[in-house]
Amino acid sequence: MRRVDALIVASAQRTVESFRRIEEQRTPYVLIDRRFQGLAANFVGVDDERVGELATEHLIDAGCRSIAHIRGPEVSTALGRLEGYRRVLSRHGLAVRPELIVSPRSSDDAGDRSGYEAMQRLLELSPLPDAVFCYNDPAAMGALRAILESDRRVPEDIALIGCGNVHYDALLRVPLSSIDQDSSGIGERAAGMALAVLEAKGAPARPRTVLLTPRLVARESTRRLHA
User: Fold this and answer.
1) Residue 28, CA distances (Å) to 143, 195, 206 in order
2) 102, 70 contact by CB (below 8 A)
3) What is the rounded CA–CA span in Å between residue 158 and residue 64?
4) CB neighbours (10 Å) of residue 91?
5) Which SS3 state, helix, strand or coil, does residue 53 take?
6) Is residue 171 within 8 Å of residue 133, measured between CB atoms?
7) What is the C-alpha to C-alpha distance for residues 201 and 181, in angstroms, rounded to an integer?
8) Domain boundaries, the chain
9) Contact 27/3 with Cβ under 8 angstroms?
10) Dihedral angle computed from the Cα positions of residues 103, 154, 131 and 221, in that order, rounded to the nearest 10 degrees
C-alpha cells in the first residue's frame, strides 16, 4: 500500500505526541495556523501578534479607550493575539485591566456560544467596555448577539471586531469588522512548502516558518462617530 507523500496539518490538538509518530514514519509534514512550542516543524500561518495589534489599533483609532478582549484557548494563535492586544494598549498608555480579558468556557468548536457567554460577563461590568476584540469571528458573532439582546448598540455603545473575515461577516445584522488572515495565501504557501520538501528527496533541512501579514477589513461594527 502506498503511503501519502506529505501532510499539511491544521491541528486542533494541544500536544505533540501524534507529530512524533508521524516523524517516526518519516512522513514530511507542514503545520498551518497553529504552532507548538518545542516542536521543530515547517509552518505557515499568519502573524498572530500583528493580528492583535491591528485589531486593537483600529479600535483605538475609532475613539475607544476601554477595550476588552474575548480570548481564545491556550494555543499559539490565541496567545499571539492576546500579546498583540496587550502591547498596543501599553504603547498608548492604556491600562491592561485583567477584568477586561475574558477566557472562554466552551471549546473552539463552539466559538459563538463561548463568545456569547463571555460577552454576558463583560456586560455585568460597571463601567462597561466601549469596545471588544474577539479572538475569532465566531466568538465575535456570539458577542454581537449578547450586546444586541441587552438593548445596546453596535458600534455606538460597544464597538466589536473579530478575526477570520469569514464569508458571511458582511451579512450579519451589524456587518462585522474583522482581521483577514489570508487563508488562501496560507494554503498556497503550505502546498509550495510541501512540494519543496518532497523535491529535496529527504535531504536534511532546517524547518522553515512563513508568517503572512494580516489585513484589516473595517465594516459597520467599528464605524463610530468620534466624540
Assistant:
1) 40, 10, 13
2) yes
3) 9
4) 12
5) helix
6) no
7) 31
8) 7-46+182-213, 48-180+216-222
9) yes
10) 90
- Same fold: 7-46+182-213 with 48-180+216-222: yes
Question: Which comes out higher in pLDDT, residue 200 or 46?
Answer: 46
Q: What is the mean pLDDT of the chain?
A: 88
Backbone dihedral angles phi then psi of residue 9, each to the nearest 5 degrees:
-120, 120
- Tens-digit pLDDT profile for residues 163-198: 999 888 788 999 999 999 998 999 999 999 888 888
CATH says 48-180+216-222 is which class?
Answer: alpha beta
CATH of domain 7-46+182-213: 3.40.50.2300
d(CA 155, CA 131): 8
**pLDDT tens digits for 20-64?**
777 777 778 888 888 887 788 889 999 999 999 999 999 999 999
**Cis preceding linkage at 127, omega within 30:** yes
Interacting residues of 178 by C-beta distance below 8 A, sequence separation 6+: 137, 140, 161, 162, 163, 164, 165, 166, 169, 217, 219
